[in-house]
Amino acid sequence: MTGYRARSKRAAVLAGALLALALSGVTASSQEPGARVPPRPPQRDPRGVRAEATALTGWQTWWALNKDRYLVPGTRGGVAAESESAAVFFGRKKTVAPRPPFAEERRGHALVEQLCAALRDEQEQVRASAAYAIGLLGKSTADGCTQHLLKALTDGSVRVQEAAIVALGLTGKPMAFAPLAAIVEGSAGGAKQLGRDSVAMRRRGLAVLALGFLGDARAAEPLGRLAAQEQHSLELRLPAVTALGLLGDARAAPTLIALASDRRAPVRLVAAAVGALGRLGALAGMEIVAQALEDRRADVRRAAVLALGILVPQLGGEPLEQTGDGSVPAGRSGPDAVVVQQFQDRVRRVVAELAREDVFRVRIAAVVTLGQIGGPEDRELLASLVQDGNVEVAAHAALGLGILGRRGHDADGSGWARLHEAFRAARSHDRAGALAIALGLYGNAEAAAAIGEQLQTIRSRQLGAQLSVALGLLRSAPSAGEIARVMLATRDEAELHDTVVGFALVAPEIQAVASLRQVVAQGKDRLQQAIAATGLAFVGVAEDLETAAALVGRSEIPSLYRALLIEGVGQAGNVRPVNPIAHLTVGFDLRHATEAERFVIELKW
User: Fold this and answer.
1) Using CA atoms, how far apart are residues 19 and 26, in angstroms rounded to an integer?
2) Secondary structure of 442-457 in the HEC alphabet?
3) pTM, to two decimals
4) Among 241, 321, 264, 254, which residue's Cα sits nearest to residue 285?
5) How far apart are CA 391 and CA 406, in angstroms?
6) What is the distance, to the nearest Å, from the Cα of residue 375 to the centroid of all Cα atoms in its chain?
7) How many angstroms separate the CA atoms of 41 and 216, rounded?
């Protein structure tokens, strides 16, 4: 099973797991919190660890939602190019990085014209992919093309309509605010925007998230009202809370603090508010997130742990971006420095304790967050858990240890040595993949030889994709040819994306680039042509991008392959990481908006 059919089947399986996750959240909400948490008795999921891992807590899920922070196609010379949407998501001001060779003047007319033309394609899959790709181009998209995107809201296909909603948010264009706000309201005006008699709840939920992606300050008030008012369905309140965190506007802090402190609110809403406070980065929410670490409800503790993985690095790094409330940004120095350091030390100790707790989903969140916020004193704990008998605990601990080393907290290299040894000894694909990614995150190029050796002999395409990503993280240029071979052999969309990105990160290997150009020019396999063109587009050479864009309009290439190529060209054209929530809504064929959003609330970071 390949392509669209495989993706549809995965979406159905994930939707079932998401429903189970949602039901478990409703059950948890009936528990009463206490002012102070006594020691908790051991708790284990009655379904067992493997059942919970199946319910979307596996390490691959964490990586899928977080890899855009570490994998940035278009990175040049080690400088990360961060998108405006990612900057809002992480609570930071946008860091300007050098553009790759196809600068604004080179990626304008031909690329945008091809994508706009694809909005009129006979195949809905192609039209939906074109809408999403136009969104990926962001504010650089011509206003005329955004107008075409607005027209796509009335497309007869629900899938295309939903893609257009998400894309309008990703563009960051002010002209998208009014139509999105009308769809959120579900009014006659919103129905008119969609060319329908009424607005389905799922499309309203998607439009709520799109307002968060849009980053328009005008959205703060209606989103805050939607999140706070109990008469609204959770299908709207949950994405509204998430969108408030995405906006990056500190004026949303009071609403989120009230929800996070509301002991009567459903547990999923509380967890969402805690997570949004972490993304928002408002100083006023710091203590609320810290207090949530001691909540009786596991889902709230888990949300707090994950939120701290975002919040604490902001406090210790770039100043928090504060707007509207007059608060003083926290940074490395100044009168707030001592308070910030005390906060960091306190929450780090609590997260280290939670890394040992018996509630599985809290534990695996804690070990990764410990890598994000911990110090040298946490290295031994993470290293010991890399050998844990539970593959998910070991995998998440490996990721945490890799991130800890990336942050410079493994001065003598003993943590790296433990990861390297564990990778060489790994027998299961799950464990080997996580350890390879962890070595890539760590960044010691000495691991490339062992990972490259395994890539040459491995038959598992999923593991092959993970090894390719690890080699990309290590910038292992000699591996480019082998990664290209794996890339051309795969047929799974998610695995293909990873191998393409891995290839792009090691692209200085000219021979491998030349071989892909030959496949594009002379290949007989249409899928391989599309894959090779997508790989070249990610590398970022102007002529290759234009060649890839030209293939979009060739009707003899099947729609699945053209849709894949369109999304690849869109990502390459903008050279920015996509907001993980936006990526997830599209990954579920745009048909599980609120479920996907709820999933992100619980598992992001």
Assistant:
1) 11
2) HCCHHHHHHHHHHHHH
3) 0.77
4) 254
5) 22
6) 25
7) 46
Distance (Å, rounded) from C-alpha 298 to C-alpha 78? Answer: 39
pLDDT digits (tens, 9 = 90+) for 101-111: 333 444 445 66
Question: What letter would DSSP give residue 378?
Answer: G
Residue 153's SS3 state is helix
**Residue 295 is encoded by which pair of tokens?**
């909540």
Spatial distance between the Cα atoms of 159 and 124, rounded to a whole number of angstroms: 7
- Determine contact, residues 545/573, Cβ cutoff 8 Å: yes
What CA–CA distance (Å, rounded) separates 33 from 55? 25
Q: pLDDT tens across 203-247, in order?
A: 898 899 899 888 898 999 999 999 998 888 888 898 899 889 888
Q: Residue 497's pLDDT band (boundaries 50, 70, 90)?
A: confident
SS3 call for 218: helix
**How many residues in total does the chain contain?**
605
Let me know: does 271 contact 602? Beta carbons within 8 Å: yes
DSSP state of 590: T
Residue whose token pair is 């395994």: 454
CA 209, CA 232: separation in Å to the nearest integer? Answer: 16
In angstroms, rounded to a whole number, what is the distance separating the alpha carbons of residues 405 and 331? 23
Q: What are the residues whose beta carbons fall under 8 Å from the beta carbon of 250, sequence distance 6 or more? A: 280, 281, 282, 284, 322, 323, 324, 325, 327
Q: Find the DSSP H helices in 215-297.
A: 220-228, 234-247, 253-261, 267-280, 286-292
